[in-house]
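Repro:
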Amino acid sequence: MNIQFRINKLYSVFLLMWVIPFALSAQRSISGRINDAADGDPVPGASVFLSGTTIGTTTDAEGFYRLGIPGAGSYQLTISHVGYQSVIRDIEPGSISVEFNAALKINELEEVVKSAGIRFRQRDISLFWRTILGKNPSRRTIQATNAQAVYYYYNSETKVLKVTCRDPLKIVNYETGYQIQYILENFTHDYNTGITDWRYQYFFTELEPDNLRQKNIWEEKRKEVYNVSLTKFIRSLYNNSLQSDGFVLADFRLNTDPSNPFSLTMLNSDSILAPASLDNSILCSVINYIIEELKPKI
């Protein structure tokens, strides 16, 4: 998944997404074996999941896995393990089961990033976590339990920040009751333009509530988050119900005039939708667009 924003204060997609569990009965599956690219040995305990869902598994002692695929839609399969480079495979729409084997390579950070004694700027650290989490990390709301796995490199000549992470981030959202495995593929921020670009894959698992009250609070919070999520926006866009669902679609452009730094132009859904194939699927491009909610915040 690739996200590019021209303004800083937008929430990350995973934070806003309301995850709807799929039915356990799947019409097709994907299976295979994961091994080490260097010596061919099996890699047990590797995470294998459909990105953006709660559907996932781990490889067994011999590196084998099998995963059910709900419905006939398209998905992205992600394979990750601590110390290895993640592997991502597109699963095309259809009803036929798929076999996919993968050889994982050791994940080596750039020497300039992992150099001994490098000091990270607090400004860069704060920007990264606010972008990824949507807010400052906190033990009461949302945080990564392995934040030390993140490396920051700021190039003072180009004024570009690059962030890398050797291992999958383990993020806990205490407000919605989810644990997120977050695979950071790329993260850059250009301080000259204010543009942040990052790619990632993620997998959700539900936390176990301590009591019924906590369960109800999590459910209400998930509904609240869904109402302002990209997931709801895409569904509203597909169903041609943006206005009735409380959304406005606008084209966002930066201006050179400092007194009028940006401009918004109202759009209709046809401007970003196009038929993609014979199966009635639809392509949607939302880069350079801002999604604003009409409904007042409570």
